[in-house]
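Changelog-adjacent note: as of this version, every example in the card shows the full chain rather than a window. The one below runs 195 residues end to end.
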Amino acid sequence: MRIRYFSYLLLTLISINFSMAENMIIDDMKNQSGKPDEEFCEGGNAKWCFVTDKVMGGISQGSLDFKKDNEIYFYRMTGQLSLENNGGFIQFRTKIDNHPKEKSYTGVRLRVRGNNNEYTVHIRTKYLLLPWQYYESAFQATDQWTTIELPFSSFKKSNFYQPSSVSSQDIKTIGIVAIGREFEAQIDLASIELY
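Full-length structure tokens:
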């Protein structure tokens, strides 16, 4: 009886340890596979895709490059945002298709550096079908590498008819976005994970 109880307890503790100990690394820049795809790239093989407001008639310009600085690998998104033609965004995003079953995370952690401007993380879930639907949380990207934690409770929905909260198990894409005003964007991303 004691051996069976001890075995059960040990298996339970190991199971809890494996399910709770790990974050889900989305990208730590260790397996870079070339230049990101441009516009309408969700069907491609790139880890990240770069999208501007040109998909809806805007005229914002930008680019996404993979760089190395002092042994740190990172993506750099740069661009000039314009509000003309109802535009005003550039972004790079990635698909989330390997979320562990039975695991829930509480937020997004990213290591970023920027030009002292505000940027946002956009999350799209399996319940959002239209391109203008997302959940958004803002952060300040200073000119020093900084680790930012954005709990899912800080994400605001873009439309009133969306579900009110985000579950990590429902996430389809995560994007880093410059949006909503005319400015020159520059943001570097060295790592991103769910925690």
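Structural remarks: Helices lie at 2-21.
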